[in-house]
Design goal:
Helices cover 0% and strands 56% of the residues. It is mainly beta and 86 residues long. InterPro entries: CUB_dom (IPR000859), Sperma_CUB_dom_sf (IPR035914). Keywords: Disulfide bond.
């Protein structure tokens, strides 16, 4: 499991583009990514869960973004993303 806590200067937001995501299977309990737009813990309504294969654009409401990638399967899960401050 990998976790990133991304912070921007006060008054700015974060835009993350997931350019390649593949959980290796479609079991969201084995491999997934979590994005929390509010920079909080992952157990609230500001959390988005990604599994399967996807590309996605994430924009925060404030200056914080928390991301977790969990790839616990042997079939080659991958996660590639870029971000910028806006």
């Amino acid at each position: 499991m990998c976790e990133w806590w991304i912070r921007a200067p006060v008054g700015k937001r974060i835009e993350m583009t997931v350019t390649d995501f593949n959980s290796g299977n479609y079991d969201c309990n084995q491999a997934y990514a979590l994005f929390n737009y509010a920079g909080n813990n992952f157990h609230n309504s500001a959390t988005y869960r990604l599994c399967g294969t996807s590309r996605v654009l994430v924009r925060t409401a404030a200056e914080q973004l928390n991301v977790i990638f969990n790839g616990r399967v042997a079939t080659g899960p991958r996660f590639t993303a870029t971000y910028r401050v806006i």
